[in-house]
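Example 3.2
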Amino acid sequence: MRRYNGNFNVKRSVALLVSIVILLTLFSHVVMAEEQGFEEATVVNNDMPSDWAMSDVQMANLHMIGSADNYNGFRNEATSADLLSVQSSLNEIFNVKSSLEPMKTVSRQNVIDVFYDVIQEVLIENRVMDSIYKDSRASILYFVETGLIAKKESGDYSLERICTKQELLVFAKRVYDHIVHAIDIDAKGAFWKVSDEDNTVYLLGSIHLSDASIYPLNEAITDAYEESEILAVEANIYKQNDEDMAYLQQIMFLEGETTIEQLLQPETYEAYEKAVSALGYFKPEVYNKFKPWYAALLLQNIQLSSASYVANLGVDFAFLAEASNKKPIVELEGTKFLLDMFNGFSKELQEQFLIGVLASGEKQADSDVQEDAENKTAEVMAEIISLWKSGDVEALEVLLFSAEAGSDLEKEYVAAMWETRNNNMSTKVAQFLKEDSSNDYFVVVGAGHMLSETGIVQQLTNMGYTVEQIK
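Structure, written as tokens:
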């Protein structure tokens, strides 16, 4: 079988990865019979957390706080074993040894005291706090002052009441986030601020597909979101409409008697058929009718999902979920625009895109072929996330844009994927600044669109705006 290790495939697919995965949530709902979620992964006996606790319980699970036994019977009273399990996992996550002592009852006071011990151990270990205070009054005061519990003018925090299992997990997730912020290991992201005399636009370069390791985000990011009146994104993938779904189904398949085999080189089709048939999701009469660009997106989605990267943990998805029914959401492009872009790729570029995805997911026997990489896509994604978390936009730009576009196919790709879109989005961001003096905007688009000489940040700088990176 031909080895797919050309210059375009290895270097260009890295940048492509950052930009395209915003659509994969939409695609997975169309072609996959099931999508694994919180209900399937962690909840037994059909027991679900209350609405107010759902998000925090989900994130606690993703951060591996507690054990499987913590994630059922959410409205039941927490036991000493539940608290010990959660405390033990926090000790392990942050590499400390707070005292593990069984308790007869798990009151809110006991939970706060235990978590206060964990916090102190971690902050002292990381030289954020000087000494330990073994005092229940100190623990309550600390939790109130830091916002871990909401301040009440009455001073009544129902401290003797027994915690439910979901309350315990919500407390634990808040403590996890608090520690991560305090010891400065939260995700800094690719984040900028640009202002004129009337309003401000915050620019967040997103990771569309991620794992739980990027959360919590740096408080500068979340504070800016709270201060902004309007959220702007490439496309609103949180609320998919019937029109977008129908349009995708209309253009993802080849027309008439044409099959994907007829469009691909024999060696490309052989690799594609092997990869897609091994999944067991699709019959030949289905996967042979996919257009090459869609086949590539589908396979890349599956590769990344198997490596624990999912769109529901992507940065733009998180802010869309938060803004839903709370803030106006503006689409800079929209799903149809993005679908038309892929569908407009030349036949040759579509095949090169598919070749790159097949190469990144192929298990290679020859270490020289793929640098001992069993899954290149997952490796690249891990590196992207690491750089994004540290806020190292210079290194991220090098990773994504170090290769020059040489061939006609590369130039076609760069023009469609980056240059045209960057120009359009930069113009719209400038309009936010010029034409809407009453609103601040929080703009979330793929990180690659912020970077390089043609990126949004540089284009706004060229327009005369001062763009400040925030870490």
